[in-house]
């Protein structure tokens, strides 16, 4: 009889496009978002590093300033250069706007004399910003840095030094490595690794939060539909225990949620991969940006994380079925699901922005014991450490939570008690 109930619940949910369509849409949207974001970042970075149209106001007009202008062209930083003698910034910006110049550079009068006299002169560099993008405009910064390099080379040659300023400032190449204490592992690179780990540790809790909230909403809605259509009352007349009725609904809802969660996870992984590839390509860092997460997460950690996410989804399905049973219609179930979701959202934001290693043992144990936050905190900790010996205990506690909740709900699943509780829930909704 229990198998028949599970099959019935599964078929009812699969037949309803309102249940499975959001999972499919979410799974398809995530990779598309990753593609759009990576393209946007790539275009912004490409716009900064591409040659610029430069307007130079040369009020000094010397051999040195002419050398700098020619150097900018030789370095490929300038696609076109116009040299004028206009002191006013307002007039220069007006000219730049009319002729589509992206950067304005002003060499003040006495510039060369100051350089030769050992006095640091001022260079005014102006970004002509016409729109706002994800990556800020840094063209003037790049041009200013190039001008300083050219001036350094000029000074070195003036004193008979046949070396470039780059070589003098950085005479040795540096190989950077990152040693992870918790893994006893050394990895190449620095910034790309930390960027990868930071994005992963921030995005995984968000993905798990979205998945579990989707399971809660689906389970609550599907069960409330049965209340609304009075089919739950029919089930209560069957010669089967209340616990098995709830267990059948729970397992049926959970099986559909599991399929939907798998789609969402696949979509998220595609999103993360596409965005990482696009971002690393724009920075020119190659595979270094993608490799660390794949290296650091061991198969054992992945297994623990997968089991934890399944149990968290099961717990949310249990909570959703409980809300649906206690709600006389879908609107009430939706209203109650909102406050219930705060038990997931608030801890999730805490996990996202905190350093798990610095938490006290009590707080960490509490986050592990609660099934809703368990996969989130686990995803952050397992990237840089081996699974704790208490992992099986935390997983067992997550399962125990679901079983306890479903047993308690079955205790009120008699027709008379159910009507009383539903009335209380309805009053709660009307009072909000």
Radius of gyration: 31 Å
- Biggest β-sheet description: 4 strands, mixed
SSE sequence, one letter per element:
HHEHEHEHEHHEEHHHHHHHHHH
Counted beta strands: 6
With strands numbered from the N-terminus, the spatial order across the biggest sheet is 2-1-3-4
Shape: elongated
Q: Please, what is the average pLDDT?
A: 75
Structural class call reads: alpha/beta
Figure out the total of helices. Answer: 17
Pick out the low-confidence regions: 285-291
Beta strand %:
5-15%
Helix % is 55-70%
Report, as a whole number of angstroms, the end-to-end distance. 40 Å
- Overall structural domain count: 2
Short key terms for the protein model shown above:
432 residues, alpha/beta, abc type-2 transporter like fold, 2 domains, 4-stranded mixed β-sheet, two-stranded antiparallel ribbon
Explain what you see.
The structure is a single chain. The protein is of the alpha/beta class. The protein has two domains: 2-42 and 181-431, no CATH class; 50-170, abc type-2 transporter like domain (abc type-2 transporter like fold). Helix content is 69%, strand content 7%. The protein has 17 helices and six strands. Helix 3 packs across helix 6 and helix 12 runs parallel beside helix 16. It is elongated and about 100 Å long. The two termini are 40 Å apart. Mean pLDDT is 75; it is low at 285-291.
């Amino acid at each position: 009889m229990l198998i028949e109930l599970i099959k019935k619940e599964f078929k009812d949910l699969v037949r309803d496009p309102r249940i499975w369509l959001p999972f499919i849409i979410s799974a398809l949207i995530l990779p598309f978002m990753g593609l759009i974001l990576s393209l946007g970042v790539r275009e912004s970075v490409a716009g900064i590093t591409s040659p610029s149209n430069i307007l130079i106001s040369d009020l000094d007009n010397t051999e040195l300033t002419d050398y700098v202008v020619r150097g900018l062209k030789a370095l490929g930083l300038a696609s076109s250069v116009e040299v004028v003698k206009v002191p006013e910034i307002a007039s220069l910006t007006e000219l730049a706007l009319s002729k589509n110049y992206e950067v304005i550079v002003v060499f003040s009068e006495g510039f060369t004399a100051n350089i030769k006299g050992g006095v640091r002169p001022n260079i005014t560099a102006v970004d002509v910003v016409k729109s706002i993008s994800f990556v800020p405009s840094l063209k003037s910064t790049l041009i200013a840095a190039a001008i300083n390099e050219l001036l350094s080379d000029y000074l070195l040659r003036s004193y008979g030094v046949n070396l470039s300023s780059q070589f003098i400032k950085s005479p040795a190449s540096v190989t950077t490595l990152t040693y992870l204490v918790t893994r006893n592992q050394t990895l190449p690179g620095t910034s790309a690794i930390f960027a990868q780990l930071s994005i992963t540790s921030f995005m995984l809790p968000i993905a798990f939060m979205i998945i579990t909230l989707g399971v809660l909403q689906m389970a609550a809605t599907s069960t409330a539909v049965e209340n609304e259509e009075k089919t739950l009352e029919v089930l209560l007349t069957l010669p089967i225990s209340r616990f098995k009725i709830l267990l059948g609904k729970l397992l049926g809802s959970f099986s559909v949620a599991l399929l939907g969660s798998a789609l969402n996870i696949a979509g998220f992984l595609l999103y993360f991969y596409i965005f990482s590839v696009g971002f690393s390509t724009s920075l020119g860092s190659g595979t270094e940006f993608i490799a660390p997460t794949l290296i650091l997460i061991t198969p054992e950690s992945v297994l623990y994380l997968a089991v934890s996410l399944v149990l968290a989804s099961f717990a949310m399905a249990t909570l959703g079925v409980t809300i649906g049973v206690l709600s006389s219609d879908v609107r009430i179930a939706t209203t109650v699901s909102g406050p219930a979701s705060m038990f997931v959202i608030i801890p999730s934001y805490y996990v996202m922005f905190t350093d798990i290693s610095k938490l006290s043992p009590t707080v960490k144990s509490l986050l592990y014991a609660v099934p809703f936050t368990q996969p989130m905190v686990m995803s952050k900790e397992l990237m840089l450490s081996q699974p704790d010996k208490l992992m099986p205990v935390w997983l067992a506690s997550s399962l125990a939570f679901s079983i306890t909740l479903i047993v308690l709900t079955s205790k009120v699943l008699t027709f008379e008690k159910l009507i009383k509780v539903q009335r209380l829930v309805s009053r709660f909704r009307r009072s909000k």
